[in-house]
Amino acid sequence: MTVLITGGGGFVGLATAEAFLEKGWQVVIYDRQPCQESIRSYFQALSGEACFVTGDVLDREKLEETCREHDVSHIIHGAAITPDTQREISDARTVVSVNCGGTATVLDIASRLGVSMVIHLSTGAVYGRGQWEEKELFEDLSELKPETLYEVTKVASEQIIKRHMALTNLQVLRLRLGDVFGAWEYFSGVRDVPSAPFQATRLALTGTRAWLPRPGLKCWVYSRDVGAAVFAFATAPHLRHELYHLSSSYRWSIADWCERLSRAYPGFGYELTDRGDLVNIDFRPDHSPLNIERMTGDTGYVPRFDLDRAFVDYMDWISRFSTLVSAP
After folding, report:
1. pTM as predicted
2. Burial label, 297 (beta-carbon count in 10 A; 0-12, 13-18, 19+)
3. Residue 188 pLDDT more than 80?
C-alpha cells in the first residue's frame, strides 16, 4: 500500500509519515520544500519505503504524475498555511489558494485516479469563538464560528469536501486535530506561530528564561499520537462517520511543561507575568477540549502520550534532532 502525504515535510506530515513507515507502507512525502538530510536518513532506515518528492500542492500536473508513478492508494492531505495576523494582511491570496485550492486539487486528482481514501487533516480551530463558548466540543453538535483567515479557509475546505463527496464516490475522512506538539516540529515557513511547548523548549536549549502570560492549560496531543491515530483511521475496517476529532484527553499546562524543562536544563527558568513586553511565548487562550469518544470508539486508538511520557519521548527526539528546533 502506498500513501502520499501533501505537506509531508511539515511536522504533522512527518509524524504521520513515520507512523506509516514503521508499519511497512510505502510513503511519498510530498512538499514544496526538500526535507533535510537528517530527516531523509532517519526515515529511509525505517521498515517501509520513503520517497521524497518536492512539489507544490497547487501543481496539478506534478501531483497527479506523482500519484500515478507511485500507484498511490491513499492520500493524506495536510498541506496548509497557518498564518499569523501579519500574513493574513499581506498574503491572504496565497493562504486561500493553498488551503482551499489545494484541497480542491487533491480531491479532483483522487477522484480521477480512483484513490481508495483521502484523509483531510483539518483543525479544531474551525469552531472559532465557539471554542470558548462551550464546555466541550462535539463533531456534529458544536457550531462552527470561524473568525481568523485560517479558521475560515479550513471551514471552507471542509465544505468543499462535503460537496465533492455529494457528487462522487470518493471516500474522504475529515479529521479535526487538537493542539499538536512534539517530535518533528520545526520552522517550516508555513506555520507562523509554533506550538507553545516548541517555543518553550527552544528557549530552554538556548538558556533563555521563559515568561508566560498564563499557565496555558489545554488538552495537548503529541505528534506521534497524531501519526498513529491517522494510521488507525486509514486501516480501520469500519468507520461509521466522515468527521472525527483527533486530539487527546491529557490536559496540562505550558507551566507544567516548563517545570519539566527546568529540571532537564538547569540553566532554564520560567515565570508568569502580566507584563506584555516580557512575554516571549505566544499561545492562544485556554479553550474547551475536543471530545474524542467517536475516534476511540471507531478506531480503538487511545492516545498514549500523557505529559510525562511525551516529555521523555520528546527529549529523546531532541537529543537526535536538536538542530531542527534550534535553527531559525
Report:
1. 0.96
2. exposed
3. no
